[in-house]
Amino acid sequence: MDGAFAALILLLGLIALGVVVVAKSVALIPQAEAAVIERLGRYSRTVSGQLTLLVPFIDRIRARVDLRERVVSFPPQPVITEDNLTLNIDTVVYFQVTNPQAAVYAISNYIVGVEQLATTTLRNVVGGMTLEQTLTSRDQINGQLRGVLDEATGKWGLRVARVELRSIDPPPSIQESMEKQMKADREKRAMILTAEGVRESSIKQAEGQKQSQILAAEGAKQSAILAAEAERQSRILRAQGERAAQYLKAQGEAKAIEKTFKAIKASRPTPELLAYQYLQTLPEMAKGEANKVWVVPSDFGTALQGMTKLLGAPGDDGIYRYTPSPVDPADTAPDDDEDVADWFETQTDPAIARAVAKAEAEARTPSPVLGAAPRPTPPPAYQQPIQIPPSGPQSPPSGSQFPQSPPSGPRHGS
Q1: In which family does this protein belong, per the annotation (predicted)?
Q2: What is the CATH number of the domain that holds 108?
Q3: Hey, CA dihedral for 57, 58, 62, 68, is it positive or negative?
């Protein structure tokens, strides 16, 4: 019974020993992780991402090292700048183990080593800068820190990828002063911008008033010129119309006298008819308001006899009758001369029509926008080549606008 129990205990001991031997002989190293193996206390080899067999009680794993890139944030460190201000700077270091053997044997704790090296390097770099340079030179500080850390940690089997300054905290008093300075600068820029805006507005308003006055002056000038030209043309046309009217009136009176004289000649009046007409004319002479007294001439008969002798010749019965005068070639001459034939044309002068059309087009043209390029100003109407012939019977105007009386007969009279 005691022998069986002792054999069982021995068997269990052998099984336990076998399990321990197997556990000491096999090691599973995952990917992105490296194991430093020592044999009898000396470095043997480095394995990563595989199943490794070890010699029990001779080989052992000294350390397991993570090969992935690591991000380590260090607490804020007090740093004194060149202008004697204390800043609290928080840094973040990105590094990766490239040589597990050096990371295990070259330094006892590479994370602490990186932290201390970053702190000392940061103090050296920032100590040569002022506060303003420190706040505005983050990229420069990051580059210098990375260069120094990468060079110093290369022998430790590390590669520093990046170094970033996460925060730079100046003292509260300095922050308050900076905020006041920033506020003052912003207020200054706001006042400057306001003043510039007022200045630009005043300039624009002055330019607008200037352009408005210039345009108003040009408009008044054009209006005065057109008014003067219109008055000139109106006077010329009225003078031409009066000239033509006087000519027509004289022509009409001449025609009336001629017709009356011809009618008298054709009717062959007797002295009795002339005496009767003379007696009818005498009361008309007395109808005027200024005529208070009128006298009948005493030699009335003698006057009638003289008129009868002038108009006629005595007949067989001794009575004076009208004798027609011989035909005068001058009576058959045309009434109108060729020199005044153009006085009564109703066509519009083309030059005047063009000037009026151009003036109307300029009046309808909108004014240019302020600030835009001015459009070319056309020559005023008074500079247009309007050809107005001089007044006179020898050079009648071609554009007179007068109604022509309809002729009662042939153009040159009968």
Answers
A1: Belongs to the band 7/mec-2 family.
A2: 3.30.479.30
A3: negative
